[in-house]
Amino acid sequence: MGWGGQTVSQLCYWFTELGIRQIYVCPEVNYGAAVHADKWIPILPNTDAALYLAIALPMDHTGTYDKAYVETHVVGFDKFCDYVLGKEDGIAKTPEWASKKTAVPSRNHQGSG
Fold it and tell me: What's the N-to-C CA distance of the chain in angstroms?
């Protein structure tokens, strides 16, 4: 009970002990990024939604999401996919599109680093 305010930090130490790599996406090198991150990805403040949309685009294209879960637990997924693909506003939410907003470089390949 006495360490409730530090639960997240304790979990991050535990993840490190288990060998789970941690990637932090944040504008500044905060405590978590400085102490726990295996990789820190700096992003412009308040642009994380653009990054999430760009991550969702290839998941939609390749079908690498839990279709059974989406069918039984998600409402409006088809509209979300249409938005990500640019059917709603004519702008596909590509990694290149997000890079201009977030200052996070886009990549055309899956890398480990």
Answer: 37
* Mean pLDDT taken over the chain: 88
**Do residues 59 and 94 touch, judged by C-beta distance below 8 A?**
no
What is the biggest distance separating any 2 CA atoms in the chain, rounded to whole angstroms? 52
* pLDDT over threshold 90, residue 18: yes
**Residue 43 exposure: Cα atoms within 13 Å on the Cβ side:** 21
Distant-in-sequence, close-in-space partners of 103: CB < 8 Å, separation ≥ 6: 42, 43, 44, 47
Tokens of residue 88, six digits = 């709603």
pTM for this entry: 0.74
CA dist 51 and 76 (Å) reads 20
Can you spell out the DSSP letters for 16-39? HHHT---EEE-SS--HHHHHH-SE
CA 58 from chain center: how many Å? 12
